[in-house]
Amino acid sequence: MGSKKKEIALQVNISTQELWEEMLSSKGLTVVDVYQGWCGPCKPVVSLFQKMRIEVGLDLLHFALAEADCLDVLEKYRGRCEPTFLFYAGGELVALVRGANAPLLEKTIQEQLQAEKRVLAEGRERRVIKDEALSDEDECFSHEKEDGDDEEAVSSEKACTLAVIKPDAVVHGKTDEIIMKIQEAGFDILTNEERTMTEAEMRLFYQHRAGEEAFEKLVRHMCSGPSHLLILTRTEGTEDVVTAWQTLMGPCDPDVARREQPDSLRAQYGTEMPFNAVHGSRDSEDARRELALLFPSFKFSDQVPEAPLGLEAEGEGPGEALCSPEDVDEAARDQGEAVR
Question: Does 228 qualify as catalytic in the annotation?
């Protein structure tokens, strides 16, 4: 029998300018995962790319990896912990997706692939875009310095809050669904790190509940397997990030959540206490304490808005801190390899 064909790599590694130029000249659509060397490529989307390769083939659909630090053309993407996927066709940027949002990635790939087929078959004009978030960034900071406008300054410091997807949700394979719902609700995920907590960390983390009967059970549960630690910001709507996250989580007890807020995360993914799927901070000071514990290099602004009184969940209320993207990136680097 003849020897088997050598399997083609799913994602081509682009490590030089020559390879980048070769990618730009390739026929069809190329999806480039731009990653940082300290956290690596976005692993959760590999299965999606494999599925799409089987469905549509590789004649007009290509996947690539590019480390931001290796290519001058990707300089402005350096130091960013959020996954970034660039879509190129005919040597031009035609689409961009930020974050490991599998449904959005699949939809964008399908739409851009169909658009490129029409360009090639019918000679239609290719729709080219600019990454406005990057191209306007320097100009934005320039306006902040020149004008001293308080509203402009908000763009460099965002209100942040902590979210934890607990081991019960992770072990049941619900992480991606929950992350998708978080993003659909208008949140930006600055950091998403998978980590198994230690008993010492959790005793300190939940020290305000040390006198409760369920304390030992809660600590054991939180150390029973990996959790996903998220730092959330919010750029859509007028509701602050803390209140919005509390609303999305719902009441602490999943049974209560199913009665009162059936669309909340705890209603959909929680089972019973303490297996209520997600965590949020009690108040602004507790948010600072928790972030300092879980992300030791995380830096806080001197001015933290007073957290509004509102929903209580797991003995938790609103909690937020002000952070810049640079603060989050530094914290993620110091924690080791982030799961993107």
Answer: no
